[in-house]
Amino acid sequence: MNKAVSQPQPGQVIPFEVDMECRPEVVPFFDEATNTFSYVVRDPASSACAVVDSVMDIDYAAGRIGFEGADRIVEYIRKQGLDLVWLIETHVHADHLSAAPYIQEKLGGWIGIGDKITVVQETFGKIFNEGTAFQRDGSQFDRLFRDGDRYRVGNMVCHALHTPGHTPACMTHIMGDAAFVGDTLFMPDGGTARADFPGGDARTLYRSIRRVLSLPDETRLFMCHDYCPDGREVEFQTTVATQKATNIHVRDDVEEEAFVAMREQRDATLDMPRLILPSLQVNMRAGHLPDPEDNGVVYLKVPVNLL
Questions:
Q1: Sign of the CA dihedral 36, 209, 188, 19?
Q2: What percent of the chain has pLDDT over 90?
Q3: What is the pTM of this model?
């Protein structure tokens, strides 16, 4: 595992094999207010770790933010004596605000997201009427991952897999035998993510999911959300084999056309996520709030009749 890790050329997809013998320790942290899972992922051969999809607390009605959930992650990493290397965002979340800069300030590490963040920034920069001071080149992040990119968490070589459809910037991150799928997939009884946000596409989502499900059957899949269908207990982990056999939307006997029809019909009935407006403004900035205005106050915008 100490071999050099080369980087791909732009547009080049690097084939890889999932290292099923590398089994990182994965510790979930659940944010009940947004049904979101964050993860601390530890390299089994060192003290290095990554944090995937952290959450900033927000009381939207009161306009107040907090970091109680992020502090639990910081406390855990410190108590375990871990070294934080990466803060991974699987995509620009529309249902919670990222706490990556807060955790980075406490513990260090690099913030990374898929390179198609620039598409999201261009789209929502217009929606929120951001001025020229708002950079649309992804420079708010420390690393922009391209499809096939590899990086390290300690001795563990990790892979970034571009899996768009829910958003243009969605990435699945593979660390050892574990894959973090963001909103691309839910637990088998929850199906799949919506594909009707700007830049989303149901057909693209189907093809991305089939790419994820081409990983070895034993690959552990970790969800970003669980909405507990039929009132069951919250769950966060499944496998490729289980998804292929039982996912209500994309099991192996569901063809592309049937999935697209189902997804588009279902998406037409869904309301916008409760926190989509503050989430997008913050997350397209890598978790930073907009700059204060001339009175020293930070504001989040509510565009009317645009979403």
A1: negative
A2: 91
A3: 0.93
Q: Comparing C-alpha atoms, which of 65, 54, 66, 64 is closest to residue 30?
A: 54
What whole-number distance in Å separates Cα of residue 108 and Cα of residue 101? 9
Looking at this protein, which amino acid is placed at residue 175? M
Tell me the sheet residues that pair with 84: 49
User: What sign results for the dihedral spanned by CA atoms 9, 12, 15, 19?
Assistant: positive
Which pair of structure tokens corresponds to residue 25?
Answer: 């320790």
How far apart are the C-alpha atoms of 6 and 122, rounded to whole Å?
30
pLDDT at 4 over 70: no
Q: Which residues pair with 25 in a beta bridge?
A: 42
Q: Is the pLDDT of residue 8 over 70?
A: no
pLDDT band at 12 (very low <50, low <70, confident <90, very high): very low
Structure tokens at 305: 């009749």
Nearest to 184 by CA among 221, 134, 159, 233: 221
> 26-283: CATH homologous superfamily?
Ribonuclease Z/Hydroxyacylglutathione hydrolase-like (3.60.15.10)
Sign of the dihedral defined by the CA atoms of residues 183, 185, 186, 192, in that order: positive
Domain ranges of the chain: 26-283
Q: What is the pLDDT of residues 142-193, one digit of tens each?
A: 999 999 999 999 999 999 999 999 999 999 999 999 999 999 999 999 999 9
